Amino acid sequence: MKRIIQKVGRIRLVIIITLVAALLAIGLNILLQLIQGNELSYTALYRALISAIIIAPLLSWYLVGLFMRVIELEQKMQEWAMFDQLTGLFNRRAFLHRAEQEYTLAKRHNESFAILVLDLDHFKTINDKYGHKAGDLILEDFGQLIKSQVRQSDICGRIGGEEFGFILPRTDLNNSRLFAEKLLTTIEQRSISIEGKEIKYTASIGITLSHPYSNYKINNLLHQADRALYKAKSAGRNCYQVANAVS
Ligand SMILES: Nc1nc2c(ncn2[C@@H]2O[C@H](COP(=O)(O)OP(=O)(O)OP(=O)(O)O)[C@@H](O)[C@H]2O)c(=O)[nH]1
């Protein structure tokens, strides 16, 4: 039903239902008159047809509309369950789910992939200085920026307040470094205007790799990337570091 409504559209569906209702009304009326042994009354047929033509479009317009609203709400709920409202990226749960899928796939095909954890720098200071709304706007802006920077096959999500995770399939250390460098430069060049003030922000990144022969699970790999991120913060921020296990 859902697919039919989406494919046919509300107006066409209402016209189809009306035509079917009119035909049914005439058919049933003829059947009823035959069963009762009456002569075919054209006035009764005419009345049945008119009432079907009046009632069917109104009722079906209302019901199809109601059904479409339910479909829209269902789609919205699915989105809310998967995506972070502020950035439009995967939320933590969806990110971890997709990461596990990539992990299984990479193992099966004997491939490596990169895991990056990125954290916006001094975000508390930004919130304190410009207000929570400005912090939210930066997160929104960052979500847009990320979407323009990653490939369709990459997986990225907001895994904490101002922390983001990336899975780059079939990516080695060299290419992960290039990706991190490109991302940091793009972020650095970005500025957003809030109440006439130009605000700039930076980020720090931790990188690790998943090898097909290693037994590290996604959680272990995220911890490794987190530790590398911590090193990047200690190294002065606005930079990336690679986890000890792969550097
Ligand atoms: N505006 C806004 N702030 C958030 C959101 N989620 C987390 N934060 C804030 O992000 C800040 C994170 O602060 P810290 O963990 O101290 O980190 P930081 O200030 O970025 O410092 P470093 O990570 O060490 O560079 C806190 O003030 C949180 O309140 C959000 O959705 N919106």
UniProtKB/TrEMBL annotation:
UniProt keyword list: Membrane, Transmembrane, Transmembrane helix
MF terms (GO), sorted A to Z: diguanylate cyclase activity
InterPro entries associated with the record: Diguanylate_Cyclase (IPR050469), GGDEF_dom (IPR000160), Nucleotide_cyclase (IPR029787), Rev_trsase/Diguanyl_cyclase (IPR043128)
Transmembrane segments: 12-32, 44-68
Ranges where the GGDEF domain occurs: 111-245
UniProt-listed Enzyme Commission number(s): 2.7.7.65
SUPFAM superfamilies: Nucleotide cyclase
Reactions it catalyzes: 2 GTP = 3',3'-c-di-GMP + 2 diphosphate
Cofactor: Mg(2+)
NCBIfam families from the UniProt entry: GGDEF
Protein name: diguanylate cyclase
Species per Swiss-Prot/TrEMBL record: Kangiella sediminilitoris
